[in-house]
Amino acid sequence: MSPNNDPCPETDRLADMADVKFFGALAAAMTHDMKNVLAIINENAGLLGDLSVKAQKKATPIDPLKASTISEKIRKNVTRADTMMKRFNRFSHSMDHAEEFVDMEETVMLVASLSERIIRRHGGTLTVIPPPVPCRIHARRFVVLHLIFRALDILCCNHADPASDIQKQMTVRFGSELTRPEICFTRDPGFMIKRDVLFDSPKDRALLAHVKMKVKMMDAGAGFCLCTARPEHG
Amino acid sequence: MGLKILLVDDEQEFVETLSERLQMRDMDTHAVFDGKTALAQVQSHPPQVLIIDLKMPGMDGIQVLQQVKQTHPFIQVIVLTGHGSEKDRKTCMDLGAYAYFQKPVDIDQLNTAIRQSHEKTLTDPRDSMGFGRPVDKGFYQP
């Protein structure tokens, strides 16, 4: 197809590519976590089987306390898997609506839980401080999730050696103006973020344009805020 | 004395249960939860077989595999991961891993791979070249 016949503007196409990559990254992290949970269930079920075989061979009963501990571990991990699947299901349904009012605290919490493995692997820990007033924007939920993921990615991964032992403390705060949603991302005291890594790529800019948000650098590079360019009302 | 197995995985509950099951199969197991501790353990108490996860905080499994193969080529490494990438499997096998399993694993398959990997060590012709040889307790010395 020639450029003139292309129904999709370049920015939209870049955003679409980035969206697919984002979906893949979270799906990979989530399925990895799920495999770990299944592996724990598998080993505990297997251990129960091993103990049964041993009990039959030696004609001695299985220790009831041991059996109950194993059973509890299986139950706990089934609950853990269920929670993961519910989160991933919510994430998958984020593409259902074109635009809607999106609660930003809920969105940050969902991205944080889905990308927990990625953050942990980079030695990061994340604290989310609840907003003083509701923080909502009108946008496509999936794109907002993507934007928050990119913000955490920049905060956590762009300056770090993944093999480093240094723990990266990250904090997300929300602004206090109801009509001007703002989300601020900061790192450990003393850490500085360079302006040139902040949503600098064409894909990132397309993402920001899609949700009508801009990036504001915090003093001394301590972090950055995402804020809406115009007031929003629920 | 059973085979000396070192298990490395940041999923503590998983690795401890697997360790217990391998002990029931007459193996002498030890579990650690990160790559750095694994390398220290390899230096102080070299195992015969290392079972390692790939994606861990800090040093990942591929880095551990690489270093172990450099310093202790006779330790057999079995990768056991929740990560399903074909690229990672190829990288691990190219670096000298004996086998690559995805979680959840069948214990009988893992048991067989552990024993076969150890047999491979015993019959490896490089042993006569001084890379390492079995000592009394079944440990290998680099």
UniProtKB/TrEMBL annotation, chain A:
Write down the superkingdom of origin.
Bacteria
Q: Which GO terms describe its molecular function?
A: kinase activity
Q: Which UniProt keywords apply?
A: Kinase, Transferase
Task: Supply the name of the protein.
Answer: Histidine kinase A domain-containing protein
Q: Which organism is it from?
A: Desulfotignum phosphitoxidans DSM 13687
TrEMBL record, chain B:
Residues found modified as 4-aspartylphosphate: D53
Keyword annotations: Phosphoprotein, Two-component regulatory system
Q: Is Phosphoprotein one of the keywords?
A: yes
Q: What Gene Ontology biological process does one annotation of this record name?
A: phosphorelay signal transduction system
What is the designated name of this protein? Answer: Response regulator receiver protein
Q: Which organism is it from?
A: Desulfotignum phosphitoxidans DSM 13687
Which InterPro entries does the UniProt entry name for this protein?
A: Bact_response_regulator, CheY-like_superfamily, Sig_transdc_resp-reg_receiver
- Whether Phosphoprotein counts among this entry's keywords is yes
The UniProt entry, under Pfam families, shows: Response_reg
**Where do the segments described as Disordered lie?**
118-142
- Residue span, Response regulatory domain: 4-118
Superkingdom, taxonomy of origin: Bacteria
Q: Spell out the Basic and acidic residues composition-biased ranges.
A: 118-127
